[in-house]
């Protein structure tokens, strides 16, 4: 299959979530509702406290995993299973909603830059009602793969025998790449997995497609990804590739199941106090 190309690119849409946090929704929009096994990708970046201080108070999830990667700032996690954690610069919060969890994500800063990503990863039908779970990963614990043109830090999955520390229920590769000026990175990947790249800093080219700062690109299939940086500054961003699940998706807000009946049951369980049990 050779090198992957960019089939579609987008700068996302402005949105608000939680109690009014301003963000950009890159995946999970009307134009791009999902990319099996990925349901949503939000990016947030602001140094204005009015954009983020309200945070994400208690809200429920069922049927998928959330991966929150904080590039700058401090946030606190609390959930209905008694898990607590403080997410600092470079940290990752990985939460398995499973059969049901209620959690909050609240900024622990009053000013300064808050910047990062939140990704929703679908679960196959046999795992949607598993026990909820949560773990943190510090940036220093990511695995590193170095090349002449830069390096790739790996959170989950494997590149050229280098394996990241996080174990996802649905097989995915989640990596943060850095490319020196006038350089490139070659990244071998599973040929038939779906995926995307998001540019956090700088501008890059993949095939004949230019991806400016802040853009997301959806890949074609292929065994290798070549990212070029022709600029005068280091470019970086995230690369996310996942094994398709290939099952029907029924979604209503924070509940993602396979059928409408399962969604209705999620509402019933939540309203009756039987959520997560």
Describe the 3D structure.
- The structure is a single chain.
- By secondary structure, the chain is mostly beta strands.
- It has one domain: Jelly Rolls, CATH 2.60.120.
- Helices cover 5% and strands 52% of the residues.
- The protein is built from one helix and 26 strands.
- The strands form seven sheets. Strands 1-22-19-24-17-14-13 form a seven-stranded antiparallel β-sheet, with no helix packed on it. A seven-stranded antiparallel β-sheet has the order 2-3-4-11-6-9-12, with no helix packed on it.
- A hairpin with a 4-residue loop joins strand 7 and strand 8 (84-87).
- The longest helix has 13 residues, at 260-272.
- The mean pLDDT is 94.
């Amino acid at each position: 299959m050779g090198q992957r190309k960019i089939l579609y690119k987008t700068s996302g849409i402005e949105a608000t979530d939680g109690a009014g946090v301003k963000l950009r929704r890159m995946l999970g929009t009307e134009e791009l509702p999902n990319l099996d096994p990925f349901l949503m990708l939000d990016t947030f970046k602001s140094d204005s406290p009015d954009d983020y201080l309200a945070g994400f108070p208690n809200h429920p999830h069922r049927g998928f995993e959330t991966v929150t990667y904080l590039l700058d700032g401090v946030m606190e996690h609390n959930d209905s299973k008694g898990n607590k954690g403080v997410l600092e610069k470079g940290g990752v919060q990985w939460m398995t909603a499973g059969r049901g969890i209620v959690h909050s994500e609240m900024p622990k800063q009053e000013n300064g830059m808050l910047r990062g990503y939140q990704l929703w990863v679908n679960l196959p039908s046999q795992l949607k009602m598993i026990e909820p779970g949560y773990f943190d990963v510090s940036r220093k614990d990511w695995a590193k793969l170095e090349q002449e043109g830069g390096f790739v830090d790996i959170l989950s999955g494997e590149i050229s025998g280098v394996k990241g520390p996080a174990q996802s229920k649905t097989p995915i590769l989640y990596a943060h790449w850095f490319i020196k000026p006038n350089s490139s990175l070659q990244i071998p990947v599973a040929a038939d997995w779906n995926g995307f790249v998001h540019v956090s800093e700088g501008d890059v080219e993949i095939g004949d497609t230019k991806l400016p700062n802040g853009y997301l690109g959806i890949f074609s299939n292929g065994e290798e990804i070549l990212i070029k940086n022709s600029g005068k500054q280091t470019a970086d961003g995230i690369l996310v590739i996942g094994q398709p699940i290939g099952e029907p998706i029924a979604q209503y807000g924070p509940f993602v199941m396979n059928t409408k009946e399962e969604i209705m049951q999620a509402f019933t369980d939540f309203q009756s106090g039987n959520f997560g049990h």
